[in-house]
Amino acid sequence: MESLTLSDVEQKYYSELFIYCDTDNTKKVASNGRVLDLFRAAQLPSEVVLQITELCGATRLGYFGRSQFYIALKLIAIAQSGLPLRVESLNSVKDLPLPRFAVGKNEAEVRHTALYQDTDSQGMYPASGTAVIPRPPGRGYQNKKGPPSSTSLPVHEVVQPLAPTIESQPEPTSPVVSPHQSPPTSPHPWRKHKRQHSGGNADRQQVVAATGAVWTQFREPQTGPVSGDGMWSSHSPPLPSQESWVSFTADTPPSITLPAAHPSSVQESTTIRTVASAATTNEIQRQSSGYDDPWKITDEQRQYYINQFKTIQPDLTGFIPGSAAKEFFTKSKLPILELSHIWELSDFDKDGALTLDEFCAAFHLVVARKNGYDLPEKLPESLMPKLIDLDDSAEVPEPTADVGYSGSPVEVTPNKSPSMPSLNQAWPEMNQSNEQWETFSERSSSSQTLTQFDSNIAPADPDTAIVHPVAIRMTPSKIHMQEMELKRTSSDHNPTSPLLAKPPELSEEAKLPASMKFVAANTVGDGYSSSDSFTSDQEPITRQRSQSGTSPEALKVVAPPPPPPRPHPSHSRSSSLDMNRTFTAASATGQPQPSTTAYPPAVPPRPLPTQTSASHTGHRVEAEAVPGSVAVLTTTSPQQIPQQPNFADFSQFQAFAASEQPSSLPEVDKHCEAGQVDKTSEGAGPLRTVKSDGQADERPSTTVNSAKGSSGPLAPPPKPVRRRLKSEDELRPEDEQHGPQKSNVIAAVLATQPSIPRSLGKDKKAIQASIRRNKETNTVLARLNSELQQQLKDLLEERISLEVQLEQLRPFSHL
Amino acid sequence: MAVCIAVIAKQNYPLYIRSVPTQNELKFHYTVHTSLDVVEEKISAVGKSLGDQRELYLGLLYPTEDYKVYGYVTNSKVKFVIVVDSSNTSLRDNEIRSMFRKLHNSFTDVMCNPFHNPGDPIQSKTFDGIVSGMMVQTG
Predict the structure, then answer these.
(1) Residue B87: Cβ within 10 Å count
(2) Which of B74, B75, B116 has its CB closest to that of A340?
(3) Where does the pLDDT of residue A795 fall: very low under 50, low under 70, confident under 90, or very high at 90 and above?
(4) At A65, is the secondary structure helix, strand, or coil?
(5) Which of A16, A71, A243, A450 is 20 to 30 Å from the Cα of A415, by its Cα?
(6) Residue A782: pLDDT band with limits 50, 70, 90
(7) Cα–Cα distance between A117 and A130 in angstroms, integer?
(8) Residues 9-48 of B with CB under 8 A from A
(9) Residues of the signal sequence (chain B) (predicted)?
């Protein structure tokens, strides 16, 4: 025989048993008599018993020596836990519970174990031991004949109480109770006991657990023999609980006996407890505690299950395929039908494979079943695999985690403790609450994403006017938008500090009703740019998409409030956008003063306000030139028009303007040259134009039309053109009409625009040109992004449809 | 609500058959058996167009004076047959379809159970539960 290593507890336990069986005191036990009874009491099939005797070598020797006896006991324990009988498993199996024996023998053992639990051993051991031992057999017989149901109930009940107190103990095997019969009504008694046990003592539980059978016996006889029980716990602490039990279980007579038994047993049990060791008690407790919350998996158990899981599937996050699981569980020798049922219960997601949680649940159910507990109809909450996403409310509560693992069981158990039947009710509640939690968290997270967008927008890609304004737009706060604008602009046009200044100016503009439209348009543009920027990041894109859906609305919402956001985020459309940019540039230069100096977009502050259109630097690449503005531009053309990217139209304007009255030239000039704004009227003009740009959208004045007419040949991009036109027109009329208005406009414009000191004409021009180029690039890229986004969406849809088709076609392969 | 629900294997033997308890349950068995011919006929007919995925739901197989029989076949030639009381005219086609869908899903779950050997009678409690839910609630 291979060497057998026993824990202290086991050692003591086995020695006790040996002594018990060794009636002849010959240090070896015959193969019959007590030993056989003992083995029989282990509730194992006879062939298993034979196998055990064979394995331990008793058949070879013809008798059970001490070592053989110990081996046999250990094998019994192994067999009872449902593991295959193997010699090597003797030492390899960890956390093996003590072998359980049915009534009669059990009592003796139970007592021993109980004694183990009880650390206070009181020299009565020998006496009590002997005294006790003889008794159980008698009782055992009684039990067997006694009303099984009643006894079983009490047994369970007894067990229950113990269990709770033991709680901490893992419970690999069912308590001794099982031998009596599968506890049909176990849930109920469990429940009660649980309650009773609230104050139970750990030790007791072990005793109780072990002496489950014993109790039943005791019960019948009544409390009298209780004294014999002694096993009980001699602990005083248990006593109070006993009392509680007694009172509590008015309806459960059996339980009453328990308490009674306790006191009496106290005297004796203490003695018997000699061998008590924490480990054993733990084991027993484990066994019983598992049933308090009948399906709770203790840590030890879970650890054991995990180890078993590893033997099949080393990756703890992986799956055990059905076939492997089938082989594994078939070893437990449960009938296939029951295994099938266990599988149905434990394969939560019905995928034909077991995750770690599912495996533990299945294993636990197998263990329970082997110990005689009936399988539940539904998976108990504590065994449910913890699922992260709560999307299937129809299923049993997913969020309930395994008791052994998370704190949730704590919440669960209270629900369940009241009664097994209430479990089902508790589950839905738990589920719902969990679902609510889940959904709530999801919601909150989604809201967070929105806010995050805001923050992310700014630092986003500086090269692209990404700035997912969607989120920003969601917040109609003007300030927020302004901030975003600021960020955006800064990111967009780093070189142009004016931009930074622009937002405030723009905000001022925004105040003007006219600007609102502009802003709205800008926001739309922003939307584009933002969506474009998403291409770089899938997540934001998806989020953006969802948000973009709302963004238009948001935009609309935003629109009404003074839209501070800089219109230039995407100058895709309106020339005015560019204007804004230039304005911002101008403003960035830092002169919100109506001093006219600024407004970068304004016509270059060339000292020659009256250019006859010639020199548009024509950099308005963007054909945003408004025909009308051309005329205007012509006036301004001479100067810094080229500086303004948006001023392409100006060039056009200029072209037209050449033929036109340069009355608006000053304004055009302003447009043209962001940086070069003369402080003179030119500056004023540009300011006005700039401002009008800001407001451009809003004023499709007739003058525009006229301007358009003049600019016909230019055919600039519609929107920008329109804007320009408007601006131009506006400018023109403004110029013509209201001096004060103009000044106001100028002031506004200037305020909005980053005042670009025209002093540095050339620099300004260069800057403005670069700005313009950047803007153009930005808009182009923005458009490209949007198109790509669209393509991506289409492709994804195609892919989904293809996958669906594939799925449909796949079943054919089974035919 | 169905009066009888049956699951028939590929080889045309029943894997599961359950009827509303009446005096003469055998007649349901007989009805189901005879409906198999109709099922086969429908399968073979549609099989011509192999390119297309065959419709799983076969629809009304044949009506008798008392009952209507609906059929559904899976891609692995497992057939589901539902016998419905003719007097129960409130059942619409969609409902029958949904019943078959549920049956199919439960059947799949049963198949996923490694302890279940294909070809064995179905002894799953969950499957029983689903079927019970579909049967006519008598009394």
Answers:
(1) 8
(2) B116
(3) very high
(4) strand
(5) A243
(6) very high
(7) 18
(8) none
(9) none
Distance from CA of B118 to the nearest CA of A (A): 13
**Which pair of tokens denotes residue A68?**
């053989």
Dihedral sign, Cα of residue A297, residue A114, residue A100, residue A214: negative
Alpha-carbon distance B48 to A314, whole Å? 48
Tell me the C-alpha distance between A274 and A560, whole Å.
86
State whether residue B112 sits within 8 Å of chain A by CB. yes
A107-127 pLDDT, tens per residue? 444 444 444 444 444 444 444
Contact A344/B at CB under 8 A: yes
Distance between CA A327 and CA A340 in Å, rounded? 12
pLDDT at B10 over 70: yes
Q: Stretch A442-464: mean pLDDT, rounded?
A: 45
Roughly what angle, to the nearest 10 degrees, separates helices A718-737 and A681-696?
130
3-state secondary structure of A175: coil
Domain of residue B73 covers: 2-134
Contact B125 A377 (CB under 8 A): yes
At A790 the pLDDT is 95
Nearest-5° angle of CA A753, CA A755, CA A756? 120
Closest by CA to A728, choosing from A695, A692, A698, A700, is: A692
Q: What is the CATH number of the domain that holds B74?
A: 3.30.450.70
**CB of A289 within 8 A of CB of A296?**
yes
Rounded Cα gap, residues A671 and A497, in angstroms: 18
Å between A140 CA and nearest CA of chain B: 37
Instruction: Report yes or no: A763 and A585 within 8 Å, Cβ to Cβ.
Output: no
pLDDT of amino acid A786: 95
| B49–A contact, CB cutoff 8 A | no
Closest alpha carbon to A241 in A271, A262, A272, A220? A262
Over residues A705-729, the mean pLDDT reads 45
Q: Tell me, yes or no, whether B139 lies in a domain.
A: no
A274 secondary structure, DSSP code: G
d(CA A567, CA A527): 11
Q: Annotate A369-401 with b (16+ C-beta within 10 A) or e (fewer).
A: bbbbbebbeebbbbbbbbbeebeeeeebbbbbb
Complex-level ipTM: 0.84
Please state, in angstroms and rounded to a whole number, the distance separating the CA atoms of residues A484 and A460: 11
User: What is the percentage of chain A residues whose pLDDT exceeds 70?
Assistant: 24
Instruction: Identify the residue with better confidence: B88 or A674.
Output: B88
Range of A193-197, A372-376, A726-730 with top mean pLDDT:
A372-376
3-state SS record for A9-45 = HHHHHHHHHHHHHCCCCCCEEECCCHHHHHHHHCCCC
**Cα gap B89→A642, rounded to integer Å:** 81
Tokens (6 digits) for A207: 């005793």
Give, in order, the Cα–Cα distances in Å from A468 to each of A318, A402, A460.
Answer: 39, 42, 8
pLDDT tens per residue across span A281-290: 444 444 444 4
In order of their start, the domains of chain A are 8-114 (1.10.238.10), 299-371 (1.10.238.10)
Residue B127 maps to a domain: yes
Angle at which helices A627-636 and A681-696 cross, to 10°: 160
Nearest to A752 by CA among A559, A575, A500, A537: A500
Residues of A in contact with B128 (CB under 8 A): none
Residue B31 lies in a domain: yes
Please tell me the distance in Å from B111's CA to the nearest CA on chain A.
Answer: 9
Name the DSSP class of A99.
P
% of residues, chain A, pLDDT over 90: 5
Confidence at residue A773, expressed as pLDDT on a 0 to 100 scale: 94
Mean pLDDT on A131-152: 41
